Backbone:
């Protein structure tokens, strides 16, 4: 009986020891798993924080560059209006004085030069207004687009039309008006320089949640897949990113260029 009792006690002790060891192993394994999960979560959080910081830093850089560009454009606008405009005004006055002093036989020869000076003065003043963001804010987004199209039509194009669809909606952030206008202005500038187009079209479609802007020219176009992204396109894209707008450029050789901007109000 004594030996049997001892064997039973030994077996029970071994079982308890085995259970204890299993329990310890389970606890250690659980702790390792929990530690690993916590470590992964913390690592992922650090990575996400790093990505968020990098994105915020990039946005701050783009914002600073945009503000610097706006200040530069404003300064150029002031210089055009105050200095170049005054010089052209002075030249026009001097020409008028010379015309009054000239004989009747040569007065007609002054007309073309006088008209050219007057047109140049109007163009300089119109350009200076589009470069000044305070003027853009004052007259509003739509009127600024209309003024730019009118200016380009007088300068080069056979027609430059703006069409509005839907009920006009005010911008919750006034700075976004300037950014959208600058994107359109960049597109129009590229049309002037490269497209060889004769006509420009801009459609502003006010939807319940978005403003869809479509700008087109009927120029020679290009193959989007083979053309490198130049400073103009990168500038438009970075500005669109600032206001969470989607930007798409469509073109084919011989079929002009189309720019589509999807701007969310909120």
Residues:
């Amino acid at each position: 009986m004594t030996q049997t009792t001892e064997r039973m006690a030994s077996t029970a002790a071994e079982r308890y020891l085995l259970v204890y060891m299993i329990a310890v192993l389970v606890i250690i394994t659980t702790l390792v798993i929990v530690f690993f999960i916590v470590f992964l979560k913390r690592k992922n959080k650090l990575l996400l924080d790093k990505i968020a910081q990098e994105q915020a830093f990039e946005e701050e850089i783009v914002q600073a560059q945009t503000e610097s560009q706006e200040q530069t454009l404003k300064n150029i606008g002031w210089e055009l209006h105050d200095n170049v405009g005054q010089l052209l005004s002075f030249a026009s006055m001097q020409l008028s004085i010379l015309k009054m002093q000239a004989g009747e036989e040569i007065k007609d020869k002054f007309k073309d030069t006088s008209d050219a000076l007057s047109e140049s003065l109007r163009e300089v003043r119109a350009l200076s207004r589009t470069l000044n963001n305070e003027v853009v804010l004052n007259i509003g987004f739509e009127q600024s687009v209309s003024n730019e199209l009118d200016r380009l039509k007088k300068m080069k194009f056979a027609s430059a039309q703006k069409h509005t669809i839907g009920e006009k909606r005010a911008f919750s952030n006034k700075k976004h008006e300037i950014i959208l206008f600058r994107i359109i202005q960049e597109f129009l500038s590229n049309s002037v320089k490269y497209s060889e187009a004769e006509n420009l079209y801009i459609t502003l479609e006010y939807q319940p949640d978005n403003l869809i802007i479509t700008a087109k020219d009927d120029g020679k176009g290009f193959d989007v897949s083979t053309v490198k992204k130049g400073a103009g396109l990168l500038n438009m894209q970075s500005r669109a990113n600032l206001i969470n707008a989607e930007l798409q450029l469509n073109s084919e050789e011989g079929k002009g260029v189309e720019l589509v901007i999807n701007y969310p109000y909120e």
